[in-house]
Amino acid sequence: MSHNFKPGDLAMIVGAYNVPDNIGKQCELIEYLRVEEISGWVDPSDGLRIQNSADGPAWLVVGEGLKSWCGCTGWVLADARHLMPLRGDFTHEQQKAKEAV
Hints:
- By secondary structure, the chain is mainly beta.
- The protein has one helix at 91-100; strands spanning 10-13, 26-33, 38-42, 49-51, 58-67, 73-78, 83-85.
């Protein structure tokens, strides 16, 4: 399902390939990275930029308590299919939820 995410959107992590501890945590989408692309965002803990070394494109997301596969905290690369929007232009999905109630 395509959510048409954009930087700044809030989402909940609903799946994971490597770190299931992140499931259920809220995050902010920072940047969509293609394979091997390096982010413009700088990790405040070490001053380094993130490179997507995964097998596919992913969102760089930040949030309290997030853990990356490499042991860093506060950010993770997340596959779009593992993100559920928490706000934004998702009126079709919101309408379906209201109808179900």
